[in-house]
Amino acid sequence: MWKPDRQSQKPLYEQIADHLEQKISYGEFPPGSLLPSERKLAEQLGVNRSTVILAFAELRSMGIIESRSGSGTRVSQYKWGATPRHTPNWKRYAEGGSFLPNVPFLRRIREALSQTPSMIDFASGELSGDLSPMNEIAMLMDEHHYTSYLGYANPQGYIPLRQALVAYLDQYRGIQTTESSILITSGSQQSLFLITQCLLSPGDAVAIEDPSYCYSLPMFQSAGLRLFRLPVDRDGVRPEDIRTLYKKHRIKMIFTNPNYQNPTGTFLTDERRNKLLEIASELGLPIVEDDPYSLTDYEGEFCPPLKSVDPHGNIIYIGSFSKIVASGLRIGWMVAPHAIVERLADARQQMDFGLSVIPQQVAAQFLISSHFEPQLNRLRMQLRYKRDLLIEALQKELPGLIQYNIPQGGIHMWCKLVPEVNDAKLLEEGIKKGVVFVPGSVYGSDSGYVRFTFARAKEEDIGPGIAAFAEALRELIK
Ligand SMILES: Cc1ncc(COP(=O)(O)O)c(C=O)c1O
C-alpha cells in the first residue's frame, strides 16, 4: 500500500495529489468513478484529513475530479471521458518554464510565516517596522505634492532620484559618479537579475562566495550559469582563489558582498580588498559588488566600498534602501559604465517599463531630507542593541551548543551548531515551537549552520525566539 514519504521536501498533499492523478490516468479510477471519502483516504494514508482535503482541492483545480455535496468526489467525465472538453493541466504548466522556483527551505519558511502570524521571525532579511522611518516618510508624503503626471517612467530611473544618489554616493560611500551611470532598480535583487540575464550567457562560469546570499537565489541556475565557489573565512574571500578559478574554469564575473556579508557578517580586510582589485584588473574580470549593508556599521565608521577605490573600472556597484530605510519601497540602484546602464535600462523597458515613479519620488525626498542621517544613526544603535540581545540569548540558552563570530555591522548572525543535526528536521521542529530561521545549507555551506537575522524580530521576541530554538535543538539531540 502506497504511503506518502514524510522525509521528502515535497508537501504531503502534493504527493497524494500526484499519486491519485497517476492512478486515474492508469485507469484504476475510471471517469465518473467514486473516490474514497476524505476521511477514509486519510486513515489509509496515515495523514490528517486536512491534507487529503488539500490534495482533492489541487486535483479539483486541475479539473481532474469533481465534488458534489452529498454524492462524494468523482473522477471528472470531461477530463478523462470521450468528450473533447479538456482542462489544461495547470500543474504541469506551473512546473514548466526555465525560471526555477525558490529553494524548498525558503518556500517552507514563507508558508510557515503566512500560516502562523505569531511565528518569531529570524529568517526574513529585513528591518522590523520600528527600524524604518515610517513617520518621517508619512510626513514627507504629506508635505510634498507627488507626481504631476503618471505616464511611463524613465526606465533608467527618475532623474531627481539619480541626482540625489550622485550626492549620496559621494558623501556616504566615497563614490564619484554621474546620473547617467546610475540605473534605478526594484531593489538590489533586480540588479542581480538583470546582470545574470543580460550580461551573461548560459554556460558562463561565475565565482560566488561560499556561503553566499546568491546560493539562495535559483535565478543564477535559471540563467544557466555555472557557479564556482570562493570560500569565505573570518576575513572574507581569499583573492588568490580567483586566479585559480580563472585558470581552471575561465570565470567571467565575480559576485561579492564584501561588507558585513550575508550570511556570515564578515568584512573583507583592507589587504584582501587591494589584492582582489589587483587580481581582477590583471585578469580583466568584472566584479559585482553587492553592498546593502556597509552603512550599518554599528560604530558609524566609514566603510568604503570597493567601488570607491576602483582605479581600473572593474566594478559594477549595487546598493539598496532595503536594509537602511525600508525593503517595501523596492528602491535599489546600480552604478556601472554607461554602456551597461543603457543596455540594462533597455532590458528593463521590455520587462516592466521601469519602476513606478511614486516610490522613486519618496526615496529622492527622503535622501535629501534632514531625516536621512538621523535614520542611519538610530538604525545603527538599534541594530547593535538587537545583536547584543541575540548574543545574550544564545549564551543563556545554548551554552556549548553553538559557535559564532560577532558581527560589527549588518543584520545577520552566522552560527555553527556543535551537535550534528539534520537541517530539515531542525527547521520543522523550530516551526512547531514557533520560530523560523534559515538553515545554512540554503547559502551553499555544509549543513550544521544556521543564519539568525536579528533585524526583523521585535526586541522582546529575541529571547523567547532563541529559547524556542534551543528547545527544538534539544528535542533532536536527546
Ligand atoms: C547581499 C544581498 N543582496 C541583495 C539582497 C536583495 O535585497 P533588495 O532587493 O531588497 O535590495 C539582499 C537581501 O537580503 C542581500 O542580503
TrEMBL record:
Domain of life the protein comes from: Bacteria
Record-annotated HTH gntR-type domain positions: 10-78
Cofactor(s) listed in the protein's UniProt record: pyridoxal 5'-phosphate
Record InterPro entries: Aminotransferase_I/II_large, HTH_trans_reg/aminotransferase, PyrdxlP-dep_Trfase, PyrdxlP-dep_Trfase_major, PyrdxlP-dep_Trfase_small, Tscrpt_reg_HTH_GntR, WH-like_DNA-bd_sf, WH_DNA-bd_sf
Sorted UniProt keywords: Aminotransferase, DNA-binding, Pyridoxal phosphate, Transcription, Transcription regulation, Transferase
Keyword presence, DNA-binding: yes
GO MF term list: DNA binding; DNA-binding transcription factor activity; pyridoxal phosphate binding; transaminase activity
PANTHER family for this protein: HTH-TYPE TRANSCRIPTIONAL REGULATORY PROTEIN GABR, TRANSCRIPTIONAL REGULATORY PROTEIN
Family membership: In the C-terminal section; belongs to the class-I pyridoxal-phosphate-dependent aminotransferase family.
Protein's recorded name: Aminotransferase class I/II-fold pyridoxal phosphate-dependent enzyme
